[in-house]
Amino acid sequence: MSDIITVTEENLDAEVYGASKAVLLDLWAPWCAPCRTLAPILEKLSALGGESLTIAKMDVEKYPEAMARFGVRGIPALLLFKDGKEISREVGTKTLTQLKDWMANSDIKLSEPAAIPTDTAMFGAFYGDPQLKQFFCDRLLAHAQQGEIISDNNAYWIEGSGTPGAAWVHSADPVIFERLTGLPASFSIAMDFTRPIKSAELEPIMQALKPGSDLNNVPLRLTHSLLSEALFDWQNLLSQSALITSLRNEWLGLCERYLAGNTLSEQDWKDLALRAKALNNHADPAVRNTAELISTLSPPPTANNADGWTVVFRLARTVMYSIGQHLSNWTLQDRQTEQRRWDWFNEKQSQSASGELSQEEIHAYREQWFSENEAYQLKEAVFFDNELQGLHPVLDCMRDHLATLMRGAPPFNPN
């Protein structure tokens, strides 16, 4: 097992530039919540590093000049070094699967533990104990009443607040969640996807949760509900591609057979995933995001693969945004405008003599963009106002689906 090392200005040359094996340098700060979310994931990666990879951390609060030295604007920033040279970098929180894929693409071999072969439930919900359920549900509702539950793409529990699943057990560690509640960690990820942060949103879910039930299939059934819900007007949302409409229907069919206990060939899923990847560069974000979700779900992760379901529901969130925009009467051009805005600002930055925009330039360009795209900016402001009111119909529907699936979950069978 590799230990995570602390990098300072004094040992930077020896520990990073002079290292005999690859080094993944994490630029972080104590006040950065995403950095703290990433920390336990890096610990897991460190355990797989063996003789091939060292994880190093540098606190940019103590060494602020490191940001300029490495040309980094935001943290967490992950810089990968080989033979003393930076070969790649990523910014933002990543799942363990994403980090492992990055290492594989960089020809860094990790030591993988033996996979857990089963996809059956390990325990019944709350081990069949109504009092244990009551304890955890009371705790979760109390946090909601205090405004301590927060929606985020990454599970976390920091300084008395965090995402719903983490708030249950005061930890973002999926193993701790499973051991304390008897619920699969993938269920926590599915629940977080529906963003229940208020008591009124949590109470129906808590009421539907039966001690001793088997919730292993709830995440997959919830994604099936997302991709099949008639209220979301899939036909018109995906009207820019006949292929994605066909792929969605095919995936729904395969999923239904899979959930019914039928054995599917690996090739069935691979063929679907391959055709979905053909839409990676489609001009419509709704088509592109739905195709990526279908590809990632072909085949679906096993219920005990918390990291895999984290990736699935991150992608499902992007699809959910497209659904919400469509229900708010956004056009294809509206859905494309976010990327157009990003490209526009990048072009302005590239035209700058220094390659960086000053605060005055940023303000001026924002004013220019708004004046030239006022209709879109107003539409976007309405969508994001009042706690993402453009997503309220989608989230309400998905929370209803979640509660229905929980009420219909079978009892845990230890055999």
TrEMBL record:
Q: Tell me what this protein is called.
A: Thioredoxin
* Cited Pfam families: Thioredoxin (PF00085)
Please name the PROSITE patterns in this protein's record. Answer: THIOREDOXIN_1, THIOREDOXIN_2
Domain of life where this protein originates: Bacteria
Ranges for domain Thioredoxin = 1-108
Organism equals: Pseudomonas trivialis
What Gene3D superfamilies has UniProt attached to this entry?
Glutaredoxin
Q: Which UniProt keywords apply?
A: Disulfide bond, Electron transport, Redox-active center, Transport
Under the heading InterPro entries, the entry gives:
Thioredoxin-like_sf, Thioredoxin_CS, Thioredoxin_domain
